Amino acid sequence: MNIHEYQAKALFEKFGVPVPKGAVATTPEEFINALSQLPEGPTMVKSQIHAGGRGKGTFTDGYKGGVKFCKTKADAKEVAGKMLGNTLVTIQTGPAGRKVQTIYFTVASDIKKEYYLAILLDRNSSKPVIVASTEGGVEIEKVAHDTPEKLIRVLVDPAYGLADFQVRELITKLGFAGPEAKNAAKLIRNLYTAFWETDAAMIEVNPLITTPTGDVLALDAKVSFDSNALYRHPEIVALRDLNEEDPKEIEASKFSLSYIALDGNIACLVNGAGLAMSTMDIIQHFGGTPANFLDVGGGASKDQVIAAFKIILGDKNVKGILVNIFGGIMDCNVIAQGIVEAVKEVGLKLPLVVRLEGNNVAAGKATLNASGLKLVSGDTMADAAQKIVKLVA
Amino acid sequence: MSILITPTTKIIVQGITGDFGGRHAKLSLDYGTQIVAGVTPGKGGQFFEHAGHKVPIFNSVADAAKATGATVSVIYVPPPFAGDAILECVDAGLDLAVAITEGIPVKDMIRVKRAMQGSKTRLLGPNCPGVVTPGTGKDSHGGCRIGIAPGYIHKKGHVGVVSRSGTLTYEAVFQLTSKGIGQSTAVGIGGDPVNGTSHLDVIKLFNADPDTHAIILIGEIGGNAEVEAARWIKANCQKPVAGFIAGATAPAGRRMGHAGAIVGGAEDTAAAKIAVFKECGIEVAVTPSDMADALLRAAKAKGVTLS
């Protein structure tokens, strides 16, 4: 689960990670009140959406930049008026962009130097890893590719936690000295505590900055959480912003379906994540384009299949549907009956290819054939994929 | 032989009184698997009864292991309690814990894995379909089925199958069986980013098992476990190996169902992994329908006959 920058910074403050002073507004009327909480002077105006690349993004009305520096609070108020309610397109939002519903004003800090700092899971060692670099404020993927020696990695032993010598190692390698070193050490320790205590999946601060007065601040904040652990963090669940999620994905999650919209025109409905990914792949292999990832889970009950069809048909790009079910434990005939009822209930008009395999498959295929529905049966995944690609061509 | 388990392996079911655990305990008993004990704290002394079987229930894994001589446990308990259930197996000194449970917090698994360091217990999973060593009876009956895989699709034979994904494992096994090719053991290692047994761990076991003559290695986007396994195969494994990587069409930055299946960088895309497979002499299945055929190609190239 992702949260907004302003929410992440509130979390940082709670754990003692310093951030520039800021205030939030969700309506133009709130701009004045929000700005009154900040001192007069240079102010940042930051669009709050769950996507990166905001600063270099463009609004759909042509206005450039979702994050802007303003010399005065009056300028900030004017700029905020152009962003709020406008739709911001960045490299991460896709062409549709995201509507900006919250503006975050912050004091524009005096920057001495920018750094990069992140905490996430290192899959190879199954331990948390702190990644830091003196190259802050730029894309970290570029740093990793061009100058990998400038990435500092510190693995944290979960049995002990972040050790002082490891903090010293980070401080030294990042080149901090004097009061900066002391402040940075405290910030790193507190950020690690925030990561561990909140079951965060990733915390990224880019840039982390030093100021001419020796302060160390998190200028930006990107935080995501492990969705498996949300049951023990109601305070984090409360931060969820449904406006930032695809309505079809929200609907899918209500039926324990895992759905992700893609750009193609062949929808798929599959049981199991690995098989669902492979079904997308095989559609593409035979020249089609998948419209979605959809895993109905191991069971594939009738209610789930009906919900899945409704979600699929909510995507106007869909020109055909491929159902691929490996009924291992489930009786294929029960699944076939679910498909027939679902198709009748939603009044499906589009081409449908069904590939059923597994337990009691003969009865399942008989049920599909006897249904009078206009559907095509596929024997193998390859056969089914070729048939649906041909039907939508 | 086989790896990890044999038809005589004695098994404990943690969560046997739950719907999910109970249902799969029954299917395993029907398959002929030696389910010798159940564990549900507070229900010790009761029995789990099914089709003439009367499986005693214990309050703890240690009690169950002591009374029955079981060396393996399968875990179906809900996510908040699953980490604890795994550690109970470690404490009881079991050889293998198979965690089927989906949705365990990553932090719990980080701590569990650290706590297991130096213990004799191997963990398979979590969020995995389990492991099957097929038997010699009708529809591979008489084998050892731990977890949620359909037993009947298997056939006793000499191909080892390893995968993160359940249904993709079934797909591979079914393709093999349909061609009359049997399996030594089929292993699902699970779709979570922190798991107990890696692709490489299983590949090493298959390589050392004289009864396994060829291997299907199924991977997906995210992480570098498949690459690690492939490089080891190139250096150490003479057996024919076929590979498949799921997720060629997955967009970067989106999790495809499995918490681990996410493209983060250039090295964990399907294309990058497939390139490494080829470089390491692994015959790549061009589609998921091609897995058994790819293995036949690999076997032919090495002069190995499969049955």
Short overview:
The complex is a heterodimer of chains A (393) and B (307). With 393 residues, chain A is an alpha+beta fold.
Describe this entry's structure for a reader.
The complex is a heterodimer of chains A (393) and B (307). Chain A is of the alpha+beta class. Chain A folds into three domains: 21-107, 2-Layer Sandwich (Dna Ligase, domain 1); 113-237, ATP-grasp fold, B domain (D-amino Acid Aminotransferase, Chain A, domain 1); 247-392, Rossmann fold (3-Layer(aba) Sandwich), CATH 3.40.50.261. Helix content of chain A is 36%, strand content 24%. Chain A has 13 helices and 19 strands. In chain A, the strands form five sheets. In chain A, strands 8, 9, 10, 11, 12 and 13 form a six-stranded antiparallel beta sheet that branches. A four-stranded antiparallel beta sheet of chain A has the order 1-7-2-4, with helices on one face. In chain A, strand 18, helix 12 and strand 19 form a beta-alpha-beta unit. In chain A, helix 2 packs antiparallel against helix 3, helix 5 (164-174) crosses helix 6 (178-197) and helix 10 (302-313) crosses helix 11 (332-346). The longest helix of chain A is centred in the middle third of the chain and has 20 residues, at 178-197. Chain A starts with a helix and ends with a helix. The mean pLDDT of chain A is 93. Chain B is an alpha/beta fold and 307 residues long. Chain B folds into two domains: 11-124, NAD(P)-binding Rossmann-like Domain (Rossmann fold), CATH 3.40.50.720; 155-301, Succinyl-CoA synthetase domains (Rossmann fold, 3-Layer(aba) Sandwich). Chain B contains nine helices and 14 strands. In chain B, the strands form two sheets. Chain B has a seven-stranded mixed beta sheet with strand order 3-4-2-1-5-6-7, sandwiched between helices. In chain B, helix 3 (79-91) runs parallel beside helix 4, helix 6 (199-208) packs parallel to helix 7 (225-236) and helix 7 packs parallel to helix 8. The longest helix of chain B has 13 residues, at 19-31. Chain B is globular. Classes of the chains: A alpha+beta (393), B alpha/beta (307). Chains A and B meet through helix 4, helix 9 and helix 13 of A and helix 4 and helix 5 of B.
